[in-house]
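Researcher: Please predict.
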Amino acid sequence: MLSFSDVTPGERIVVRYRLSVDAAGIGGRFSDALGELQAVTDESISVQTRSDLVVIPRSMITHAKLVPPAPARRRPRTPRN
């Protein structure tokens, strides 16, 4: 897993994290956050996704890695006549 001490805010990352944990400490539902790292604290990280700022408790993170920059958007296709 990625060490957040090696990542600087502004770098693009993907993080998989648990959505909930039961009484036994086991969580079955996961989600991913893809975007720019905004902040890292001892308790959580913040990722700016395309639609929202996601604050993820570090204890819920299962995987994280750096990803390359997003590809340039393609121009819309024009209909053929």
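Model: The domain at 4-66 is CATH 2.30.30.100 (SH3 type barrels.).
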